Amino acid sequence: MSSTSGRAWVFGDNVDTDVIMPGRYCHIIDPKELASHVMEDLSDTFRHEVKPGDVVVAGDNFGCGSSREVAPLGIKLAGVGAVIAKGYARIFFRNAINIGLPIFESPEAAAGIQEGDRVEVDPATGVIRNMTRGMTWKARELPPFARQIGEAGGLMSYVKRKLELLKSK
Q1: What is the pLDDT of residues 69-84, one digit of tens each?
Q2: Element (H, E) at 121
Q3: Interior angle at CA 148, CA 18 and CA 13, nearest 5
Q4: Nearest to 156 by CA among 102, 101, 98
Q5: CA 84 – CA 103 distance, rounded (Å)
Q6: Residue 128, SS3?
Q7: pTM for the model
Q8: 134: alpha, beta or left, given left = phi > 0 and alpha = psi -120 to 50?
Q9: I need a labelling partner for 166 at 20 to 30 A (CA). Which of 8, 49, 94, 121 fits?
Q10: Chain segment 144-158, per-residue pLDDT in tens
């Protein structure tokens, strides 16, 4: 995975999947249409102004609530390059890894980044840089299996690679 950089979109604690991707849109299968509704009930501007590479920054328990997979998928489809949070709800954390959404846990970075800051994240090293404020942090390391799934672009890509390796032997 390559580095990503962009504008920081800052949200608070306990952002649940119902506001990340409202239930009334979970039936949408068109990726562009689905992405157009992410964070709709939480921010008037996010869905209209988010750009590829932008970074979502949140407090504790990000992605709590229901286990809807479309919540991290909507974030990824909107072009968000990474999510940095103080902490994640377990099911959101795993769903994000499964779809290849780069997520990073760093309470210090989550506290040190403000709305609109320019942020750069290096998925290979877990280094998070606030380019606006000249600050740097290191995210908590993911377990090796989760890192491998992320590097493959998600669980499906990871499994395909593993199957191809088995076939070539």
Answers
A1: 999 999 999 999 999 9
A2: strand 118-122
A3: 30
A4: 98
A5: 6
A6: strand
A7: 0.93
A8: left
A9: 94
A10: 899 899 889 899 999
